[in-house]
Specification:
- The chain is mostly helical.
- 36% of the residues lie in helices and 9% in strands.
- The chain is built from 3 helices and 2 strands, in the order E-H-E-H-H.
- The chain has a two-stranded parallel sheet.
- Helix 1 links the parallel strand 1 and strand 2.
């Protein structure tokens, strides 16, 4: 039985197209460089990540989005609240 899995949230540089093939390529690269234990179960592409005004990524929110949970806790320090809406909507598509 498996507990939690690894989900990668990836932002790509301008001009790079995010697609399923790129996700598979990233999984293979992680498996080769770090090892099979670190291979992500899922790769999600995002235009931006939830950051505080000081620029720190809010990992707590990414964990809640990956688990499909409702966002709980303080979000007043978010730089852009629309990032959460976009990530939540994108996770519902898959």
């Amino acid at each position: 039985m498996k507990g939690q899995g690894v989900v990668c949230f990836v932002t790509v540089k301008e001009g790079i197209t995010s697609n399923r093939d790129l996700g598979e390529e990233l999984k293979k690269h992680i498996r080769k460089v770090i090892g099979p234990v670190a291979t992500p179960d899922e790769v999600r592409f995002a235009a931006a990540l939830p950051k505080t005004r000081s620029g720190k990524i809010m990992r707590r929110l990414l964990k809640q989005i990956a688990a499909g949970e409702l966002i709980k806790g303080d979000t007043t320090t978010l730089e852009d609240i629309n990032v959460i809406a976009a990530l939540s909507a994108a996770s519902g598509e898959d």
